[in-house]
Design brief:
about 160 residues; 10-stranded antiparallel β-barrel
């Protein structure tokens, strides 16, 4: 198994990003859009605040706020997400080796059991991709695909400490 420095990998998300988004819905419809994101190092390099703002066809303005950090006691990565669509989820997961991170949430939506699995692939220092699969009652309801390309590193307001 490849050992991953989780804090260092998470801190790769700092900077400014251009995003493309595509959501495939269970009814066969597809919503696409573009946006920008800013990742800031928080808690002296122990985590990242990641904010995405964009527009999706048929939906309009979209915002997503995330906090991502590594918990060395549990050897897990936690992500807390709040979106303008009313989604509020706490995901937990692990690096699956190399530069892939798998995060999961389970709970309920409209009274039915639901789950979400997010796979983050750190492609390079300047690109990463996310695939999000949502299920309600075991049935796939939405597949979201995001591609982020770095536009700037300038939001690193202070150096990330050496321990990160």
């Amino acid at each position: 198994m490849i050992m991953v420095n989780a804090e260092s990998s998470i801190n790769r998300l700092t900077g400014e990003w251009r995003a493309s988004m595509k959501f495939s819905m269970e009814d066969g419809s597809i919503a696409q859009g573009r946006g920008t994101a800013i990742g800031r190092s928080i808690a002296l390099g122990r985590g990242v605040q990641f904010v995405l703002k964009g527009d999706l066809e048929g939906i309009g303005t979209y915002e997503e706020y995330n906090m991502v950090a590594y918990d060395p006691e549990e050897d897990t990565v936690s992500q807390f997400a709040v979106t303008s669509m009313g989604v509020v989820h706490a995901h937990t997961g692990r690096f699956s080796g190399g530069d892939s991170l798998i995060l999961k949430w389970s709970g309920s939506i409209r009274g039915a059991p639901a789950e979400e699995e997010i796979t983050v692939k750190l492609i390079s220092e300047d690109e990463f991709a996310i695939r999000q699969v949502d299920r309600i009652d075991g049935k796939v309801t939405t597949v979201g695909e995001y591609v982020y390309k770095r536009s700037s590193r300038k939001v690193l307001e202070e150096p990330v400490p050496a321990f990160a």
